[in-house]
UniProtKB/TrEMBL annotation:
Protein name per UniProt: Flagellar P-ring protein
Record function comment: Assembles around the rod to form the L-ring and probably protects the motor/basal body from shearing forces during rotation.
Subcellular location: Bacterial flagellum basal body
One Gene Ontology MF term: structural molecule activity
Entry GO terms, CC: bacterial-type flagellum basal body, distal rod, P ring; outer membrane-bounded periplasmic space
One GO term of the biological process aspect: bacterial-type flagellum-dependent cell motility
Keywords, alphabetical: Signal
Keyword match Signal: yes
Length: 213
C-alpha cells in the first residue's frame, strides 16, 4: 500500500487567500460579547470598569478572563444606533495587564525586562562575581508646625559591584533592572547572564517568566 505523511487537507498559502463566499454577519440585539485575544482576569475587569464609567451605568460585566458581556441600552437598540454604540466602545482606551517577563537574546546579550519584575531575597554564587544590592528607606518630613505636607518614605538603592573569588551574590528584594545594571558594569557575558537568571528562576526567586531566545 501507499505511505502518506501529514494531513492531506492541510495547506499553506504564502500570499494569503480569497474568500469566495461572504460570511453572514448577525448583529447582536440585546447583548455584546467582547472576546480578549489574550485572556486575563485583570484586563477583563479593567475593560468592564472603563465601559461602565464611560456610559455612567452598569452595562459591562467580566464573566471570565476571556469574555466581557455588555448589555446594549434601549436607546441604542434602535436601527442605525447599534453601530455608534459599538464604535464608542471600540474607541475607549485600555491599558492591558502585562505579564511579568524577562526576555534574553543569547546571541546579542540583549535583556528586556518588564515593569516591576522583582527578585525575592536569595543568595547566588556564580564564578568570581560578587554583587550587593541594598535598599535604605529615606524619610522626608514636612517642616514643624506646617499646615500642609505629609511624611513621605522612599527607597534609596545602592549597588556595589566587584569581582571576588568565592564570594556570594546577595540579592534582597531588588528589581531585575538593578541586577542587570550591576552585571553589565562587570562586563558579564550573555552566557553568564543566562546562567544567573536560570538559577534564580529554578530557586523561585525570579518573580517572572523567563524567555531565552
Amino acid at each position: 500500500g501507499s505511505v502518506q505523511k501529514n494531513h492531506p487537507t492541510v495547506g499553506r498559502i504564502p500570499g494569503g487567500g480569497v474568500v469566495k463566499k461572504e460570511i453572514p454577519l448577525a448583529m447582536p440585539e440585546e447583548e455584546l460579547s467582547l472576546i480578549l485575544s489574550r485572556p486575563d482576569f485583570t484586563t477583563a475587569g479593567r475593560m468592564s470598569e472603563i465601559i461602565n464609567e464611560d456610559f455612567s451605568q452598569s452595562l459591562a460585566k467580566a464573566v471570565d478572563p476571556n469574555t466581557v458581556k455588555v448589555e446594549i441600552p434601549q436607546e441604542y437598540q434602535k436601527e442605525g444606533l447599534l453601530i455608534s454604540f459599538i464604535s464608542r466602545i471600540e474607541n475607549l482606551s485600555l491599558v492591558p495587564d502585562r505579564i511579568a517577563r524577562v526576555v534574553i537574546n543569547e546571541r546579542t546579550g540583549t535583556v528586556v525586562v518588564g515593569e516591576d519584575v522583582k527578585i525575592l531575597p536569595t543568595a547566588v554564587a556564580h564564578g568570581g562575581l560578587f554583587i550587593t544590592i541594598s535598599q535604605t528607606p529615606i524619610i522626608s518630613q514636612p517642616p514643624a508646625f506646617s499646615e500642609k505636607g505629609e511624611t513621605v518614605v522612599t527607597e534609596k538603592t545602592e549597588i556595589e559591584v566587584s569581582e571576588e573569588e568565592g564570594r556570594m551574590v546577595l540579592l534582597q528584594g531588588t528589581t531585575v533592572q538593578e541586577l542587570v545594571n550591576a552585571l553589565n558594569a562587570l562586563g558579564v557575558t550573555p552566557r553568564d547572564l543566562i546562567a544567573i537568571f536560570q538559577a534564580l528562576k529554578e530557586a523561585e526567586a525570579l518573580q517572572a517568566e523567563l524567555v531565552i531566545m
